[in-house]
Model the fold of this input.
Amino acid sequence: MSGHGARLLGASALTLLAWTASAGEIPPAERRSGYDFMSRETRAMQDDDTVNPGMLGVLEGGTLWARKTGTAGRACADCHGDGRASMKGVAARYPAFDAALKRPVNLEQRINLCRTERQQAPALAYESRELLALTAFVARQSRGVPIDVAVDARTKPFIDNGRAAFYRRQGQLNLACSQCHDENWGKRLAGNAIPQAHPTGYPVYRLEWQSLGSLQRRLRNCLVGIRAESYEYGAPELVELELFLMWRARGMTIETPAVRP
Amino acid sequence: MDRETSRRAFLRAAATGLGLGAVITVAPAHATPEAMEDAIRKIVGSSRVSKGRVKLELPPLSENGNTVPLTVSVESPMTPADHVRAIHVFTELNPQPEVVSFRFGPRAGQARVSTRIRLATTQTVTAVGELSDGSFWSASAAVVVTLAACLEDA
Amino acid sequence: MSSALVNVPPRARRGEVIEIKTLISHPMETGYRRNQLGARIPRDIIRLFVCTYNGTEVFRAELHPAIAANPFLVFSTVATESGTIAFQWTGDNGLSATESAAIVVD
Done:
């Protein structure tokens, strides 16, 4: 799209080009979680585990964790023991490179790989209640842990793909993610503040969804919102964008299950 | 808020992944303040409803009308002789006016409940308290309700 | 399948007013939404919540579709004696869910 932009030299196009030319990453010290942009009431919903609706999913996930399943008749607990101990730090490292698949996989895909390969159980559908519950349970164990996805020769190309997607103008509105989330965070879009788009609390209980949902669901929402082509759940483009966003949020702490408007 | 167009519905049908695109939220006909008055009448009959005694706590601006925290309370000794029997909550512009009714007895200790409600649009919420002496009291609070900037399916 | 999270103080003094929090998973389908074909999605809500304390009802809430999904209720009761505080949610499509918590009152 940038080639097209250079040819349209109307005044408004020049202004737009000048605006995007000043685009830049958020300085690490200025990075803030979406939590900081919420109302007092919504923050109160997240702060207390006894009132956080996302905790219902974590509770269910804990039950699923201990349940034997698949033709192998195995529970997650049979290999991983008490998830509250063994899963600490895991979500903070995902998406992670899978050596066999030679590409990064997100936490939902990792859970499904375990189910199909080790439990001989069918994969759980994306955004299904069970997959959200298991992911919420696992990610909850990383609450307070700083995000730390691996940056190495294997992951760098995928992080770069995600970065390119983040800065690429797309869709009918010709918007790049960065234009809202790097350059206009804190300003208001309809009734809500634009956050910086750090995926610190996924799966998140989004009031708009009235349920838990994954980061991929949120990304698909955004793509539909800017009238761009969306991707299927599990698409490599979405995983790469997830990986980039987690890299961009490195050092920020996991808040799962976050509550967001 | 009917923004449905056949093209959009087609796009959504094309983009439907796991049935997430299957629901649209065309706003139904709203209830009216008159409907709310009728609903309150059903509770109080011919009794007078006085303003006061009831405290209704709602955020003046709600980030999402799907989940608006509400706390309602009535100061009362909550003794067998003098207690709150019930608190009823109504809205004037939701599809139906009744939201919830809470029933108390002296064992409640205090007449104070918190919950989360849905508000279809910016409007006023009214709570009616019913005391053991048969009297009715009310309080109202206005809430500005904003919608998500980018609706999921549109 | 509804999961419930209830929060009851495990201990209280006799006569103390305690706060109970309850959260149950349920979509609270209002009956006002329509699907892509324009047909109404049928209502499916929790209609009634009852709290009993050693078998005696101490609080009740009658819910309508305007209660948000995953109904959340915080209410109070007087800690009268040790025993069981029980919760029951009933609603459309034969929904019936129960949960309980023990309390020690001294």
